[in-house]
Amino acid sequence: PHHCIKLIVTRGVGGRGYTPPETVNPTEIVSVHAIPSYYAKWQQAGICLKTSSIRLGLQPLLAGMKHLNRLEQVLIKSHPLPQGFDDWLVNDIEDNVIESSMANVFFIKGNRVITPSLAQCGVAGVMREQVMIALLEQNMNIECLPVGAERLIEFDSA
Known about the structure:
The longest helix is centred in the C-terminal third of the chain and has 12 residues, at 126-137. By secondary structure, the chain is α/β, with parallel strands linked by helices. It contains 3 helices and 9 strands. It has a domain at 45-154: D-amino Acid Aminotransferase, Chain A, domain 2 (Alpha-Beta Barrel). The chain has helices at residues 38-45, 71-78, 126-137; strands spanning 3-10, 27-34, 49-51, 87-91, 96-100, 107-109, 112-116, 141-145, 147-148. It is globular, with a radius of gyration of 18 Å. The strands form 3 sheets. A 4-stranded mixed β-sheet has the order 3-4-5-9, with no helix packed on it. A 3-stranded mixed β-sheet has the order 6-7-8, covered by helices on one side. The protein has a two-stranded antiparallel ribbon with strand order 1-2. The two termini are 28 Å apart. Helices cover 18% and strands 28% of the residues.
């Protein structure tokens, strides 16, 4: 069986407020998890996404970064998915598609692969980078662009 590793690194324990202590002692947390069995089905059949009513705010300073202050994702995941859907599709407050609640997204149009720009918000996942590298090695055209929700019907597939 395959597993995934989750690594969390914090600056350690501090006092009250936001200012870090003068001396920090980082904390590392490592956990190992079985890869969910439904991933294999998703790889074969694809997934069905429902657009979340919760939008991501714009924060270019944190855009692309994976951090522990993902309160918008907590809110998104607190809503049960309607039957027949596998995950939430998440837009920003300007109605640009950004990601799903737990993964990056890619769209295909002809010989072009487009992934949403994460310049304003969203997480640049580890697998997103690996997919982009693999596509470049295959001489595929990959572009990071804003993808307005109204443009989804223009793509051949996702």
